[in-house]
Amino acid sequence: MEKQGRRRFLITCIGGLAAAGTAAIAYPLLTYLSPKKAVSTRRAVEIPETDISEGKAKFFEYEGKTAVIIKAKGTVHAFSAVCTHLGCIVQWEKEKGQFLCPCHAGRFSADGEVISGPPPRPLEKLPVAMRDGKIIVG
Ligand code: FES
To answer: Do 35 and 55 lie in a common domain?
Structure first.
């Protein structure tokens, strides 16, 4: 009788250890293999409306890259300031109302379109909204 009790105890212990070992291997494996949930990493940037006036550009950091907002003809635009040619940072020429890329003289209009030079595409537009006296980019 005592022998059967000991055997049952050992079988229960071995079963428990096997279950724990299986869980220890399966959980990290399933976690690794399951698809990641889509989480937006975008963070909005708020800029006071008073910081920008007609014809003026303001550069700022957006998602780790240089971005720019500009008010032209009463409309606020937001762009990535990264040139679409080889990635230099464009500059704003207020007197000409254009962006100039200093690397290869690419020119963009105030609405980001290519005017001249080697850039193959317009500047990347960023979502922009106005709320409570703030310009919200992102
Ligand atoms: S990197 Fe801007 S024109 Fe070449």
So the answer is: no
